[in-house]
Amino acid sequence: MARWTPATLEADRWETPTARTLVLSVPGWTGHRPGQHVDVRLRAEDGYTAERSYSIASASAPDRLELTVQLDPDGEVSPYLVGDFAVGDRVEVRGPLGGWFVWDTTAPDPVVLIGGGSGIVPLMAMVRERHRTGSRALFRLLYSLRTPEDRYYRTELGPAADPGVDVFVAYTRTAPPGSARGPERLSVADLNTHGFPAEFAPVCFVCGPTGFVETAADGLLALGHAPDRIRTERYGAGGRR
Amino acid sequence: MSTPATHLDGNVLAGPLSEVFAVDVTAAERHCAHCGDHGAFARLRVYTDGPGLVVRCPGCEVLVLRLVRTPRGLVLDLGGTGCITLPVDD
User: Fold this and answer.
1) Mean pLDDT calculated for residue range B70-77
2) According to a count of CB atoms within 10 Å of the terminal CB, is the N or C end of chain A lower?
């Protein structure tokens, strides 16, 4: 069984005003596969515990992992992790977990990544692991988010960051000034234009809020992608759990 | 119920079920005896609004399992109606 192990906050980065990347030092951590998650457990002084699942954002590395946590003001765990968790503080983690929503780094198949909001996090781990392992699998990433201010990983997923990774950003509420595409939801036409054709048999990873995942997965099916090539991970309004 | 319950994917069961099973159940294949749905355990629907976790089939919503932590221990209800094939290392 996966054991709970202590994880110490070593550093942090703010992705947006409400999303914080936590760089955790986890002695004994032997790495993970891209797409996997960990359970994080907080323990209050009175012994009360709260657990949530968070996707791993970083590439595999020994003794260390990164999570990006989106603040959910009504949540039980994220307000602490985003607002109060200080460098040097400790939580417990269990993992790496999950063997299904995982990209196989040895597979040469093209990959379509579709992320809604903080659903970008496990997909970022895949992009980073692709880079770390020198994989030549072609990636196309479709990133749906409300406004430019909500965008994570701006530099790494910026223009021409990696010739093997095409990035398309769909803004749903406010688009940056001068952009050709107005704010609108990610459509089947977007999936068709910016994904890979079904004939290429790409493996498709979709992560985001439940409604977003349903819509994107239905769109992929409508475009002829095989159900067993589509892998999904959803999370509720209360953040990942 | 005033609002429809939203669900998560079976992926989220990996941690809690690791307390019970030695292998990663979320990568297992499940065949539903109730509706014939076939696919990865990770595709199951997980409802977290009640106490513990309630897991249902994506095809017919039949109860697959419940996992609740109580003062007496971890209660696992394998209501079931399905057959699970687990990946194992040789």
Assistant:
1) 90
2) N
The answer to the question of residue B24 being in a domain is yes
A1, A39, A234 member nearest B8 (Cβ): A234
Amino acid at A193: T
The Cα of A206 is separated from the nearest Cα of chain B by a number of Å equal to 12
Tell me the shortest Cα–Cα distance from B5 to chain A, in angstroms.
10
How many CB atoms sit inside 10 A of residue A89's CB? 12
Cβ <8 Å between B9 and A99: no
For A23-40, write each residue's pLDDT tens digit: 999 999 999 999 999 999
CATH class of A111-235: alpha beta
Q: Looking at the predicted complex, does its ipTM rise above 0.85?
A: no
The DSSP code sequence of A44-88 is -TTS-EEEEEEEB-SPP-TTEEEEEEE--TT-SSHHIIIII--TT
Question: What's the domain range around B72?
Answer: 8-85
Please answer yes or no on whether A232 and B27 come within 8 Å at the CB atom: no
Q: Under CATH, what is the fold of the domain A4-97?
A: Elongation Factor Tu (Ef-tu); domain 3 (2.40.30)
Short-list B40, B47, B49, B88, CA closest to B65? B47
Q: Which ranges in chain A are annotated with CATH 2.40.30.10? A: 4-97
Asked, for residue B52, whether it belongs to a domain, the answer is yes
Query: Is A99 in Cβ contact with B87 (below 8 Å)?
Result: yes
Chain B hits for A241, Cβ within 8 Å: 8, 12, 48
Total number of domains constituting chain B: 1
- The verdict on pTM exceeding 0.95 is no
Q: Best of A55, A100, A204 to disrupt the B interface by mutation (most B CBs within 10 Å)?
A: A100
